[in-house]
Amino acid sequence: MRMSTFIKNFIERETISRRHFLLASAAGLGAAVLPNPLGGSARAALTDPAIAWSYRDRASAYWNSVVSGGEAFVESLGKPKSALVSLINEGSSEKSLADIKAFLAKNNGNCALACDANDSPNARPIVEAVAAAGGYISTIWNKTDDLHPWDFGDNYVSHMTWSDEKPAEETARILFEAMGGEGGVVHLGGIAANNPAVERLNGLKNALKDFPNIELLDAQPADWDTQKGAALMSSFLTRYGDRIKGVHCANDNIAYGVIEALRAEGIEGMPIVSYDGNPEAVQMVMDGQLLATVFTNPHWGGGITSALAYHAATGSFKPSEEPKEHREFYGPTVLVSKKDAEEFKAKYLDSVPKYDWADFWGPSNGQIQYRS
């Protein structure tokens, strides 16, 4: 069966994005960071800091939405979109850190950065490099539990993540109900060291406790990637065959690959749930190809993360004077199922809501809680 036009084009865009990344790497950010003699604590408010977003790729609708939020923020400052520098790491933690160090060196630390560190252990060296150079950084998604903004004075402005466990549990329950409460399920996850990958698998496992006739056949990382998702689903089909009655995906990109792997085997109508609430996935929910996805408002998340770093850098507010719930907090989540997908699409996707980028914590969802 022929590959759907959307997913075929999506995979082609991923490949092109990687080529562009390699060309940019060859041309650009290879310099080592230069030490800032002032250090992070000696510098006062910055003047017109360079603004950057460090993230995985432009191939996915999710990261495009994050960056569009950052661009909307810089435009609110009267700057062009191009004033937001993209530091694209393509899933490499080493590249993420090297590019940030090069950006700091190029701008002598006069920087405001928004960043997803790619994996949790990479967050600390990134934050330490930014603080040492006198820059300011706000992070999302990935950091270790022992890394806190308040341990770095003002330079580590904030960290936002999303409480993925409960929404992933909700999608799993929708999946299990569609399976009739019995049969085998497989989970295709993100990068193993990513906080959201861990939480989304935990959500699935939580739901399993109430469905004794559902068997988790396998759970493996697909690295948030469509092509890896397709390859992994093909291997699951080879190993487990028709024992698979449902699929739990850690993000929408993986789900696209799962659908193609199923179609290659002539399988239609398999119950599938995913995560991210990308426009294509929402349409698939409306069309019945996916049961549910979860929206994390990446446009708002991308814009407000940039805004926090920038306004802290320019002295609009002092992070160290803010309560802890303003420095580590959850972003919003919205479960999207067939019954509400059309209403959701009209509200969030057909036209992008306008946000007040000075309302730093308006849609946020409380302080991050850690397991003891």
Automatic annotation (TrEMBL):
InterPro entries per record: Peripla_BP_I, SBP_2_dom, TAT_signal
Q: Which domain of life is it from?
A: Bacteria
Q: Name one Pfam family in it.
A: Peripla_BP_4
- Identify the GO cellular component terms for this protein: cell envelope
**Where in the sequence is the signal peptide annotated?**
none
What family is it from? Belongs to the bacterial solute-binding protein 2 family.
**Protein location:** Cell envelope
Residue intervals passing through the bilayer? none
UniProt entry tagged with the keyword Signal:
yes
Keyword annotations from UniProtKB, A to Z: Plasmid, Signal
| Protein name in UniProt | ABC transporter, periplasmic solute-binding protein
Please list the residue ranges annotated as the Periplasmic binding protein domain: 51-315
Q: What is the lineage of its organism?
A: Bacteria, Pseudomonadati, Pseudomonadota, Alphaproteobacteria, Hyphomicrobiales
Main location (coarse class): other
What molecular function terms (GO) are annotated for this protein?
carbohydrate binding
Task: Write down the species.
Answer: Rhizobium meliloti (strain 1021) (Ensifer meliloti)
Concerning SUPFAM superfamilies, the annotation shows: Periplasmic binding protein-like I (SSF53822)
Signal as UniProt keyword:
yes
